[in-house]
Design a protein that fits this description.
Elements: H1 4-15, E1 25-28, E2 34-38, E3 41-43, E4 51-55, H2 57-64, H3 70-75, E5 79-81, H4 84-101
Parallel strand pairs: 1-4
Antiparallel strand pairs: 1-2, 2-3, 4-5
Helix pairs in contact: 1-4, 2-4
Length: 102
C-alpha cells in the first residue's frame, strides 16, 4: 500500500495532465492525512474545499484501480461525500484522476 506522500505525488502527476477540475477537492484519509486538489496544485494542506471525500487510503487505491465501485463504497459507508450532487457532476474527472494516479 502506498504512503500518503506516494499517493500525493501520484495525484500531483495525474492532476498536471489534461484532466480539468474546476472545483477544489479534499481527500480526507480518515486520520492518515489529507490530499487537497486545486486544479494542477496538489498538497497535504488541510483547508476548506468545494468537495470533501472521506475514504481510507486502502479504499482510495482500490477506487483508482477500479477494484471498488464508487456507489458500493458510498452505500456501504466506506466513502462519504460532503456534496453528492457536486461529486456526481465531477465523477468523470475524479475517476480519470484516480485511474491515472493508481
Amino acid at each position: 500500500m502506498a504512503t500518503l506522500e506516494e499517493l500525493t505525488d501520484r495525484i500531483r502527476r495525474a492532476a498536471s495532465s489534461d484532466i480539468a477540475l474546476d472545483k477544489t477537492i479534499k481527500l480526507d484519509l480518515k486520520g492518515e492525512g489529507v490530499i487537497v486538489i486545486d486544479g494542477a496544485n496538489v498538497s497535504n494542506e488541510d483547508r476548506k474545499t468545494d468537495l470533501v471525500v472521506t475514504i481510507s487510503r486502502k479504499d482510495l487505491e482500490a477506487l483508482g484501480k477500479r477494484e471498488l465501485d464508487p456507489m458500493r463504497a458510498i452505500m456501504t459507508g466506506r466513502m462519504r461525500l460532503s456534496d453528492m450532487g457536486l461529486a456526481m457532476k465531477l465523477q468523470p474527472q475524479i475517476q480519470a484522476l484516480f485511474s491515472k494516479a493508481s
